[in-house]
Amino acid sequence: MEKQPQCECEVIHADVVQAVQQQLLDQDAYIALATLFKLFGDSTRVRILHALEQHELCVCDLAALLGMTKSAISHQLKSLRLSRLVKYRRDGQNVYYSLADDHVKKIIDMGYEHISE
Asked: What is the pTM of this model?
């Protein structure tokens, strides 16, 4: 295995390091951000989010659209809901899901734009 090059110096640009240090978040914020991005690491969840970007849908509609069971869709929606990526509303016996807010749409759109370049 090839050895990684090691930096032999101490801090060269102390002013830059200090400025960046002041901008860093606390560890809990990075854990929360990593957890959020993990949700986008599953293609099923991304497909659900993209479908919900187009229109609000119920579990049955999502299952038919994605060729999955209602149980599998419900399981994924629970993860997305607990992470505040989707929201729901009741209309009688039906529950309709949609993206939680415009931030989720922007994440999806920016991700697609990035892979399309």
From this structure: 0.82
Cβ contacts of 23 within 8 Å, gap of 6 or more: none
Determine the Cα–Cα distance for residues 106 and 102; give it in Å rounded to an integer.
6
Measured between alpha carbons, how far is 61 from 87 in angstroms, rounded to an integer?
Answer: 16
Two structure tokens written together for 21: 């240090």
**Would you tell me how many other CB atoms lie within 10 Å of the CB of residue 85?**
23
Domains in the chain: ranges and CATH: 14-116 (1.10.10.10)
- Cα–Cα dist 100/8, whole Å: 48
- What residues contact residue 44 under an 8 Å CB cut-off, 6+ apart? 66, 68, 72, 76
pLDDT digits (tens, 9 = 90+) for 66-108: 999 999 999 999 999 999 999 999 999 999 999 999 999 999 9
